[in-house]
Specification:
The structure is a single chain. The chain has five helices and nine strands. It is α/β, with parallel strands linked by helices. The longest helix is centred in the C-terminal third of the chain and has 26 residues. The protein is globular. The chain has a five-stranded mixed beta sheet with strand order 2-1-5-9-8, sandwiched between helices. A four-stranded mixed beta sheet has the order 3-4-6-7. It starts with a strand and ends with a helix. The structure holds zinc ion (2 copies). The site of one zinc ion has 8 residues, from helix 5.
Length: 193
């Protein structure tokens, strides 16, 4: 019925990609497809900010995705910004097909602390849910533990669960069901005499 395309932009460690792949499969019940990695997104680098333009990377990721992908999750190690904010953890098209996630500020090393792999995994899972949630049409949620609550700093991310609250979950299930039905319809009709 389709798949979530996982697209890596620039260098990202295999174990993190492996983790996200499994997490997305378990959470959404879709196949995931790992697309060929893209090179470091130098085209999106802003030399003055020493950061990368999130919108341009997301656009490029969508250009690279296969047409039958239900969703595209691009994952990068570079630090992202949009012009009005000093940084973003990720970006998504609201009710669109694409989401982008940066690991840069999810690492303990970014804050001068020793590396913590399990913590990186858990933060990446939460932010993947968050950005994909937007692409499924969800807006920010007032429940602080919900993956869809807005995080402006890493402590707020750590305070969230790597799942949606019941209300947001119901919306995601509804969206996914609609997508599945829509994807299944043409084949079903072709089966008819
Ligand atoms: Zn958000
Ligand atoms: Zn929620």
């Amino acid at each position: 019925v389709g798949a979530i395309d996982l697209l890596i932009v620039g260098p990202v460690e295999d174990d993190v990609v492996e983790f996200l792949d499994g997490f997305l499969r378990r959470t959404f019940g879709y196949e995931t497809r790992r697309m060929a990695s893209l090179p470091n997104p130098d085209f999106a680098r802003d030399p003055r900010r020493a950061q990368y333009d999130s919108t341009r990377i997301l656009r490029e990721a969508l250009n690279q995705a296969s047409v039958d992908a239900i969703q595209v999750l691009a994952v990068t190690g570079v630090d992202l910004f949009i012009p009005m904010l000093s940084f973003v953890y990720g970006q998504a098209q609201l009710k669109g097909r694409g989401a982008l996630l940066s690991l840069a500020r999810l690492r303990q090393e970014f804050y001068g602390l020793p590396p913590d792999r399990p913590l990186l995994y858990s933060r990446a899972a939460k932010e993947a849910l968050h950005e994909l949630g937007h692409s499924f049409g969800l807006v920010h949620c007032p429940v602080p533990s919900c993956a869809m609550s807005l995080s402006s700093n890493i402590l707020q991310i750590d305070a969230k669960n790597s799942e949606y609250c019941p209300g947001c979950n119901a919306l995601v299930v509804e969206t996914l069901t609609t997508v599945r039905v829509r994807a299944a319809l043409p084949q079903h009709e072709e089966d008819r005499p």
